[in-house]
Design a protein that fits this description.
Layout lengths: L1 H15 L5 H18 L1 H57 L27
Helix pairs in contact: 1-2
């Protein structure tokens, strides 16, 4: 810190005699400010508070994301159950399409031909 302060003072003196450039004076001033801020414990506190706030905001965002994902999971589970129920209905309807004879033998008086639409009568 002492060295950067001395360098800034030297660059200021040289600038007044037009022996250095504005850029070198600004660099020396910036270097001194950077060293001063890095040695100031309040700067660390401010940086730590900023980092803490950033982490808190990130945690809040992650919690919201988790809630959205849980909601999507519930929706997907409900969709799965609906599709399983539709499959069960389709399997039951497929069972209605099969005609099973009560015994072995040949069909004598059949009234239905291949390709003909047949409706099923339900008895309860």
């Amino acid at each position: 810190m002492v060295r950067t302060k001395a360098e800034r003072a030297r660059q200021e003196a040289l600038f007044q005699t037009h022996s250095t450039t504005q850029q070198k004076l600004e660099q020396a001033t910036a270097d001194e400010g950077g060293i001063r801020r890095s040695c100031d414990p309040r700067g660390d506190l401010v940086q730590a508070k900023t980092l803490l706030r950033s982490s808190e905001l990130a945690a809040t965002a992650e919690e919201r994301t988790k809630a959205v994902l849980e909601s999507q999971e519930s929706q997907l589970v409900a969709d799965l159950h609906a599709k399983e129920a539709a499959l069960t209905v389709a399997q039951v309807n497929l069972g209605y399409a099969k005609i099973i004879a009560p015994g072995d033998g040949t069909v004598g008086e059949r009234q239905v031909r291949p390709g003909q639409l047949v409706s099923r009568e339900r008895r309860f």
